[in-house]
Amino acid sequence: MGTFVQLTAADGSPFPAYVAQPAVQSRGGLVVLQEIFGVNSHIRAVADGYAADGYFVVAPSTFHRVQAGVELGYTEADMGTGFALKTAVEALPAPGVLADIQAAIRHAAQGGKVGIVGYCWGGLLTWRSACLLDGLSAAVSYYGGGMTTPTEVARQPRVPVLAHFAEQDTWIPQDSVQAFRQAQPGVTVHTYPAHHGFNCDQRGAWNADAAQLARQRSLAFWAQHLRG
User: 3-226 has which CATH code?
Assistant: First the structure.
């Protein structure tokens, strides 16, 4: 089990982050980026799971600049609240929440080389981080909402990227996934016969087989790029 700590971005803005440490020597650092539901029990469980695999994990609150203490579930009302908060964060002047993610990367570096992984909106922020931020060695995005839009596709990652998408995702059209794959031949893209949110066992979209396979691929990716 991890604990919340207070971190500070370069502009002096403080924010909480959930930190889970491995019981053995660290294999590397990982930054875990939340969905639109906050650093909730699911994201904390993801962080704890990666810590159990040997990683020093930091999960920053990416809503803190617009609202503190956000922890939502997965009801329709929660989705509306989360989407509004995400919209508010996206409207912040640059660099906005990327400054907090950069601070989380620095904190995770005490575990070794740093990777970043995000889910839904966190998947989009993971892609932006891979293209814009310093201190990363690899990035894994899960069904990053907005990641396949022309503006995002035009970005160029600085580090190796693995992207997981769902073939039955009503939020991310499959033609846009194929366009992303063609425009970014250096990115490893996997698709799964599942819906958006398939990694989350608290959602109706959870797909155990897809989640397990994506996790195996992610762990192999970390082992390849964060070792040494």
Answer: 3.40.50.1820
